[in-house]
């Protein structure tokens, strides 16, 4: 079977470098190119050097357009604006677009849905097997436990993360809301300060911590009368997200255009 040819977006970032290493280490994949934002210090750098590997001869560029025609998929952990632009390129080329970018607005999601009419898009707030299995468990627990069990989501990430709650936190919140058959936006509590009054029945609370170099820890708490259930996932290496993203690209190859999730990739729905 021929290798799947990948373009890595955001190649100079933490996840980008991890993805470059994953393409080298995981059998069945080849690097078709790498891109980063205009003006990034890594433009022109060798992708092998960025990944802590021997030089590959493939340089980071700021223009993905010439690369998509040579690729089977784009893997993208960048920014909302960049992801939307890349989705347009993926749609034009009819290739797979794996999106791990978080912090998307409703308007951003609508633009991605439009691109998914021609591109096979796999989008998830977290690409790891463990987190997506956790989300399935959270949905089931939320459906099984009555409203007397309050749901709170606690997360901690490194001090350079720019969005809060994280994409993973929102993924877990959505799973809990789906289990309860409620609208997360109408029942989401993102902050508490001062005299807030008693907790409303049915709310899903988020507590966001940032510090150090933590890759990502998430705990979903079901707090009921005289007992508490806690479901936790701790990420120790970004490679788990990279391997999940590669698996998503492989799964998406040959699938019809549309918007998919890691639950689809893993067969969890």
Concise structural overview:
The chain has 269 residues and is of the alpha/beta class. 36% of the residues lie in helices and 24% in strands. It is built from ten helices and twelve strands.
Structure report:
With 269 residues, this protein is α/β, with parallel strands linked by helices. Helices cover 36% and strands 24% of the residues. It has helices spanning 14-25, 47-50, 65-68, 80-93, 106-115, 129-144, 167-180, 184-187, 239-252, 262-266, and strands at 4-9, 29-35, 60-61, 73-76, 96-99, 120-123, 150-157, 188-189, 204-210, 216-224, 227-235, 258-260. The protein has a 7-stranded parallel sheet with strand order 3-2-1-4-5-6-12, sandwiched between helices. Helix 5 (106-115) links the parallel strand 5 (96-99) and strand 6 (120-123). Helix 1 packs across helix 9. The chain is elongated. 43% of the residues are buried.
Question: Secondary structure elements and their pairing?
Answer:
Elements: E1 4-9, H1 14-25, E2 29-35, H2 47-50, E3 60-61, H3 65-68, E4 73-76, H4 80-93, E5 96-99, H5 106-115, E6 120-123, H6 129-144, E7 150-157, H7 167-180, H8 184-187, E8 188-189, E9 204-210, E10 216-224, E11 227-235, H9 239-252, E12 258-260, H10 262-266
Parallel strand pairs: 1-2, 1-4, 2-3, 4-5, 5-6, 6-12, 7-9, 8-9
Antiparallel strand pairs: 7-10, 10-11
């Amino acid at each position: 079977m021929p290798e799947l040819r990948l373009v890595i977006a955001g190649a100079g970032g933490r996840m980008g470098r991890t993805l470059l290493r994953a393409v080298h280490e995981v059998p069945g994949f080849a690097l078709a190119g790498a891109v980063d934002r205009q003006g990034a210090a890594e433009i022109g750098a060798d992708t092998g050097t960025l990944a802590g590997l021997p030089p590959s001869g493939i340089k980071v560029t700021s223009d993905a357009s010439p690369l998509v025609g040579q690729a089977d998929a784009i893997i993208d952990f960048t920014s909302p604006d960049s992801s939307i632009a890349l989705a347009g390129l993926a749609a034009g080329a009819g290739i797979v677009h794996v999106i791990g970018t978080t912090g998307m607005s409703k308007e951003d999601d609508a633009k991605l849905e439009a691109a998914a009419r021609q591109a096979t898009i796999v989008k998830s707030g977290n690409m790891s097997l463990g987190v997506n299995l956790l989300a399935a468990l959270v949905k089931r627990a939320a459906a099984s436990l009555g409203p007397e069990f309050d749901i709170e989501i606690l997360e901690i990430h490194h001090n350079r993360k720019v969005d809060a709650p994280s994409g993973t936190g929102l993924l877990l919140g959505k799973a809990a809301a789906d289990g309860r058959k409620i609208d997360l936006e109408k029942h989401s509590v993102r902050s508490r300060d001062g005299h807030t009054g008693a907790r409303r029945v049915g709310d899903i609370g988020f507590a966001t911590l940032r510090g150090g170099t933590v890759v990502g820890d998430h705990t979903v708490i079901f707090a009921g009368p005289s007992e508490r259930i806690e479901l936790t996932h701790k990420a120790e290496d970004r490679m788990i997200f990279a391997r999940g993203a590669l698996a998503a690209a492989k799964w998406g190859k040959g699938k019809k255009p549309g918007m998919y999730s890691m639950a689809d990739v893993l067969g969890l729905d």
